[in-house]
Structure formats: C-alpha cells, structure tokens
Write a structure and sequence with these properties.
The protein is mainly α. The chain is built from 10 helices and no strands. Keywords: DNA-binding, Transcription, Transcription regulation.
Length: 228
C-alpha cells in the first residue's frame, strides 16, 4: 500500500515547478512556424496537466476540459495531442529522457560506458529535470493509472538506452548479461535518489552528490557493507 502524501507537499512542488517543466528540443531548428506552434501547444498542455495535478494532489481530480481551458484550446484539440491525461503529464519527461539518450550518444567513444552513464545521470540529477521527475513520481504514487503509463514509457526509453550501450560495448544484450546489467544499475542509482527526494528523507547531500556516491558504491562492490 502506498502511503498518503500530504497535499502541502504537492503545493510546494507546484510552486517550485511553475512554468519550469524541462523540455529539451522535441522540434528541430528547421521546423516551420506551423510545427513550432503545434509543439508549443503540446508542451503547454503537458505543463497545464502537471500543474493542475500538483495543485490538487491527484490527477483524477483534473478533467481534460480543465486542462484544455488552461491553455485556451478545445478538448478536441487536447485529444489531437494526447490520448489521456496520463500521457499529457508524462510528456513533461519525454524531452528529459530524449536529451539523456542524446547525451549518452555524445560521450567520448573511448570512455567506459559505466562512466558515460554516470555522467548522464549526474546531468539529470543536477538540473531542473530532477525536480520534474520527483514531482511526477509523487503523483504516480497517488495515481495507479499514471504509474502504469509511466512504467510502459520507461520500458520504451530503457530500450533505446540499452541499444546505445550495446552499440558502444559491442555486446549483444540477448547473449551477454552486461548491457542490461549496467543499464539497470545506472537507473537504480538515479531511481533511488528520486525515491529519497519523494520521501523527503533528511539527507545531508544534494542529488548530484548522492548519484556520484551511488555509482562509487557500485564500483566498490555492494558485497562490502558500510558500517553504520
């Protein structure tokens, strides 16, 4: 059973994130004005969905009509862009994840893939993207439908990252354990730090430091348990 999260926490994240939802260029620079307008409308709808859900602490308390009204478009227009409220909220993460994949592809070809993944996760943890991820995770904890959509989306993103890791290492993930293992380990570090932020754990370090610590623990090996 998921513990209840006080509504005050949602209000805090709503204020912190107001119009700061990260978006990393879904649209190429050469796109025409019409495509730019469509992209801006889609992003605005996603922002509105996330803000309204954070404001009320529950996506179920938000209607499609309200999201559309916030952007001054029709409900039909909303449905042209998104199949559901959940898709609209999760779109706020798509640009973040696309950027993460691109960052991984841009890392030096001779860099160890584990170091490359650490650099990407550090980038996410030290940017406004982290706050967006925490906010969506909070909402998912209260909304089973959103959590289910998020899991499906994460699988898609993980497939792209796995393909890049496979390319860089020259290892087939269907034959060798390493590509999946290193991808899952990297996501586990970031996911753990996000979980700690969601639980408001009293940690003396910022997210970037925790990600760096997590990767170092993996390098050292988890068999050696630190003393409390």
């Amino acid at each position: 059973m998921t513990p209840d999260i006080p509504i005050e926490r949602f209000h805090f994240w709503k204020s912190f994130l107001k119009w700061k939802v990260c978006y990393y260029g879904h649209m190429p620079p050469t796109s025409g004005l019409r495509e730019q307008k469509k992209s801006e409308t889609k992003l605005a709808l996603s922002r509105a969905a996330l803000e309204l859900a954070l404001d009320r602490g529950d996506l179920a308390a938000v209607t499609v009509d309200e999201i559309a009204d916030a952007v001054r478009v029709s409900s039909r227009t909303f449905r042209n862009y998104f199949s559901s409220k959940e898709d609209a909220v999760l779109f706020s993460l798509r640009g973040i994840e696309d950027n993460a994949v691109e960052l991984l592809r841009q890392r030096p070809s001779d860099e160890h893939v584990f170091d490359s993944l650490e650099a990407v996760m550090l980038d996410l943890a030290t940017s406004e993207a982290f706050s967006t991820a925490v906010a969506v995770t909070r909402l998912s904890a209260q909304n089973p439908g959103l959590a289910a959509h998020d899991a499906a989306r994460s699988d898609d993103v993980g497939t792209v990252v796995l393909a890049e890791v496979s390319r860089r290492t020259g290892l087939d993930p269907e034959v060798d354990l390493y590509p999946r293992l290193v991808c899952n380990a990297a996501y586990a570090v970031l996911g753990t730090v996000i979980q700690l932020a969601v639980s408001d754990s009293a940690l003396p370090r910022d997210p970037g430091e925790l990600v760096a610590q997590g990767f170092q623990r993996l390098r050292d090996g988890l068999a050696d348990q630190p003393r409390g």
